[in-house]
Amino acid sequence: MNRHPWLEPLWQRLTAQPERLPHALLLEGPRGIGKRDFALALAAARLCETPHSDGQACGQCPACHWFAQGSHPDFRLLEPFAGEGEDTEAEEGATRKKREIPIAQVRALADFVNLSSHRAGGRVVVVHPAETLNPAASNALLKTLEEPNPNTYFLLVTHQANFLLPTIKSRCHRISVSQPNADQAGAWLKQQGVNQAELCLALAGGAPLLAREFADVAYLQARQQFLSALAIPQQLNWLALAESGARADLAACFDWLQKWLYDLNSVRLAGRVRYNLDFGSGLQDLAPRVNLMRVQHFARELAQIKRRLQHPLNPQLLMESVLLNYLAAVS
């Protein structure tokens, strides 16, 4: 299982005394730093029958083979269901529509945690991301956490702990997982063969797994074209850009625009570019000429719209409206 180098100190701390591992851990931190991979590696280690001295699963015993195949009888992974014909999230940094973990998945744990384990060992449940538990599922999980069964371990992974029930957080041992520093993340991305590692890491806010997702050539080209149009508002063909944005990834366009607005504010107030390192000169040229109050107001409006972006009735009309508001904000 993947154990990313920046999480090695945390791994050593948790596996030094495996018999003292709390029955419920809550791993919280930014998206795209490897929390899901870490939880799965820890689950594999708990189920392994001949673990290594460093606590890592051996990868050779029957339990490890079952785990690798996704068929270990003493393991459950709770993640949001995908719609028909769609794939579930393969990695923590992968982009997908927001979905929920329904109560049916949590109710199915009742027999799992109450029956004897198949290998006379422990049972492990991983919930990712825990904030996608719907209200009914959250309450059902809370009942299980309040009355833990022996040798049953819950590993909850969350990107937004503030969306979890306070009672769930109080039943877990909370661990804040920090993202790596720029040198660690950059070195890892280069090992992964990522070009433009510095730019991708900036776009991802320092999260290396998310940066690896952003390294897709087609993604970077689409972003380049979109931002090149925003950089020269007096020449912006908003109808054409809205049409191309609606045909492409609408969520990605909103993400690019949000980060562009952030950088406009940042350049105007602090003289720094956080996300769009390759558009530094364009931002420096545009920032002094915009109305900062309008830009900040538009950024707040955009954040509200993005929360309702899952099922836009007419993506092109939405993009047209957003781009017209952008022009009004920067004119």
The CATH topology name of the largest domain reads Rossmann fold
Distance between the termini: 51 Å
* Biggest sheet strand line-up: 2-3-4-1-5
Structural class comes to: alpha/beta
Tell me the strand percentage band.
5-15%
Mean pLDDT: 90
Number of domains: 2
What's the helix-strand series? HEHHEHHEHEHEHHHHHHHHH
CATH class of the largest domain: Alpha Beta
User: What Rg is obtained from the alpha carbons, in whole angstroms?
Assistant: 23 Å
Quickly give the CATH architecture of the largest domain: 3-Layer(aba) Sandwich
Q: Give the overall shape, derived from the CA principal axes.
A: elongated
User: Helical element count?
Assistant: 16
Plain-language structure description:
With 331 residues, this protein is of the alpha/beta class. The chain has 2 domains: 172 residues, P-loop containing nucleotide triphosphate hydrolases (Rossmann fold, 3-Layer(aba) Sandwich); 113 residues, Zinc Finger, Delta Prime, domain 3. The chain is built from 16 helices and 5 strands. A 5-stranded parallel sheet has the order 2-3-4-1-5. Helix 11 crosses helix 13 and helix 13 packs antiparallel against helix 15. The longest helix has 21 residues. About 5% of the residues have low confidence.
